[in-house]
Specification:
The protein has 155 residues and is mostly beta strands. Helices cover 9% and strands 46% of the residues. The chain has one domain: Lipocalin.
Length: 155
């Protein structure tokens, strides 16, 4: 099955989410977290998306580019900016908080988990909302969130 999802669905599913509380101020990342960031640095191509029990390939060119604590998700001429506010490589799965930068609106946090296996990155996140709603794994049946599978772009 091939999925052709709207860009907003691919870039955080924020169009259908409730407006949560503004994102908290970032804490200084630990030395281990800063070291882990170097594993994410670079450009990644989105190859698979899963949500609500459905999974499919992506037939659009969608890229995630990590530079330090900054993340840009882009598809064609459209892009969205995020920052990595928290990263915990000691948990299983590893935890990450992405803060969506929304011009004219308060920033909001996407709680997620990730794993890296060679040149493959999986990132699962819950839709922004009140309270804690971090996924506990990468199950495609995640109802209020998404699981993204990305491949590192060799440049």
């Amino acid at each position: 099955m091939r999925l052709c999802l709207p860009l907003l669905m691919l870039l955080g599913s924020v169009a259908v989410a409730d407006d949560p509380k503004p994102a908290p101020k970032d804490k200084e990342l630990s030395a281990d977290a800063k070291k882990e960031l170097t594993k994410l640095d670079g450009k990644w191509k989105l190859v698979k998306v899963a949500s609500g029990g459905q999974e499919g390939d992506v037939d659009k060119e969608v890229y995630f580019e990590f530079k330090g604590t900054e993340l840009t998700m882009s598809a064609g001429s459209r892009s969205e900016a995020y920052r990595i506010a928290a990263l915990d490589p000691a948990t299983d799965p590893r935890c990450v908080d992405l803060v969506e930068k929304r011009p004219g609106k308060p920033d909001r946090t996407l709680e997620g988990v990730y794993r890296i296996d060679g040149d493959t990155l999986q990132l699962a996140h819950a839709l922004p909302g009140d309270g804690k709603n971090r996924p506990t794994g990468f199950d495609k049946s995640l109802e209020r969130g998404m699981v993204w599978t990305l491949k590192r772009v060799k440049e």
